[in-house]
Amino acid sequence: xxxxxxxxxxxxxxxxxxxxxxxxxxxxxxxxxxxxxxxxxxxxxxxxxxxxxxxxxxxxxxxxxxxxxxxxxxxxxxxxxxxxxxxxxxxxxxxxxxxxxxxxxxxxxxxxxxxxxxxxxxxxxxxxxxxxxxxxxxxxxxxxxxxxxxxxxxxxxxxxxxxxxxxxxxxxxxxxxxxxxxxxxxxxxxxxxxxxxxxxxxxxxxxxxxxxxxxxxxxxxxxxxxxxxxxxxxxxxxxxxxxxxxxxxxxxxxxxxxxxxxxxxxxxxxxxxxxxxxxxxxxxxxxxxxxxxxxxxx
Length: 298
Hints:
By secondary structure, the protein is α+β, with helices and mostly antiparallel strands. The chain has five helices and 18 strands. A hairpin with a 5-residue loop joins β16 and β17.
């Protein structure tokens, strides 16, 4: 019996040593983390590992990269917007760890405007062999063929929905299979700007819908100053707002997961929190609506 216990103890100790060694090795490999709703660090498995770092010297360039801001990968080709140098680098992946510079694209042929770029910030390549470039400071999106011949350009929309006092500064691009262009433009907050394949502006997509609660508006419009101040102790808030911080501050919850659990409740639930000072708060929860009451003066 004693021998058996000794063997079990030795086996258990061995397993603990092996496990701790494995954990130490994993820790040495690196770690990935993010911040949760409360700003606390949450660790997670490595999202990726760096396999190589390349500079202008590796590509035989005399001028170093300057504020590169856009990158697109098509098959074994990599396109980099070297924004500060007004050029696009076309690079080919020739091996698992090797890259080769194919050409520097800093001009094109044809078109009515300048045949060079000014702070290009993004690039995209399509299956039918066209290169789209967000030529930001030239206020246009260029469409070129693979021989760098000008095909067409997309410029500031002339439309009542687009403020004509704003400059058209495209900075990010996406092209769908039909050749439609979607772009993010600096100073435009209505969503993605959408162009049809023929260059016609067709509107904005993806903008966050703005809603307004007329009940709150009427209440705030006619409430006295005292009533407005009282709203701090009697609140009616939607779950998607900053309200979770307040619940945590008042001691009803400690983690964001607990807040999510509150939202899953069906029907109305009542929670109570009493402070050492004698302050008593209650919280009513009905899915996405929360009401809390200060009973200290009652």
